[in-house]
Amino acid sequence: GDSVTQMEGPVTLSEEAFLTINCTYTATGYPSLFWYVQYPGEGLQLLLKATKADDKGSNKGFEATYRKETTSFHLEKGSVQVSDSAVYFCALRLSGGYNKLIFGAGTRLAVHP
Amino acid sequence: NAGVTQTPKFQVLKTGQSMTLQCAQDMNHNSMYWYRQDPGMGLRLIYYSASEGTTDKGEVPNGYNVSRLNKREFSLRLESAAPSQTSVYFCASSEEKGAGGGNIQYFGAGTRLSVL
After folding, report:
1. Which residue among B41, B105, B107 places its CB closest to the CB of A99?
2. pLDDT in tens, chain B (116 residues)
3. Is A84 helix (H, G, I), strand (E, B) or coil?
4. If DSSP codes are grouped into helix, strand and coil, which group holds residue A16?
5. What is the C-alpha separation between A102 and B64, in angstroms, rounded?
6. How many CB atoms lie within 10 A of CB A6?
7. Which of A30, B2, B110, B114 has the smallest CB count inside 10 Å?
8. DSSP secondary structure code for residue A67 in this structure
9. In this complex, how many residue pairs, one in chain A and one in chain B, have their CB atoms less than 8 Å apart?
10. B7 to chain A nearest CA, in Å?
């Protein structure tokens, strides 16, 4: 069935380090892909998205490229800040049908000064 | 600038008690959703409402009922709470009724529910 797999956390980094959070997916058709972020005590917020192969989503210094050949949508940031500490969710939306999101398990990121 | 508002933020129930989680959105969105979030499992869809007057089951509907009261409000009811329903519940909304690419879902801050 359709699914999203994320790297297990927690990921612990020092400020200004490079971040990669891996995400791979299994889906039929041509899904749209999303990264959501959940800050402590808050709901999920959309961080970035990509709707077709080779699209690059970007926001707040984060980037992810929709790679259909490897069914991946890895999240990267060149220099993390303490304020980036949060849980990051990769998600897909199947093409056609209703707007159903399938989420990965989430990856907790902790950034230390 | 409220977006999606959920009440209550926290709730403790005893096994067998009932309660209703409330959700309201002020973005004039057609579709609304209820998810539960459990450790290590991401978010799972309980029920959704593609448009006012319609509701459908998601991935984990057992033990829950929903009501789409009007376009703004979508409530989730636990008739007889069980410890397995201890979770964080999120409501979300999105603009489009159905098919379409890249539709964004907007989430509330969540309700943390403990069932003893």
Report:
1. B105
2. 679 999 999 999 999 999 999 999 999 998 999 999 998 788 999 999 988 889 999 989 999 999 998 999 999 999 999 999 999 999 999 886 554 445 788 999 999 999 99
3. helix
4. coil
5. 20
6. 24
7. B2
8. B
9. 64
10. 13
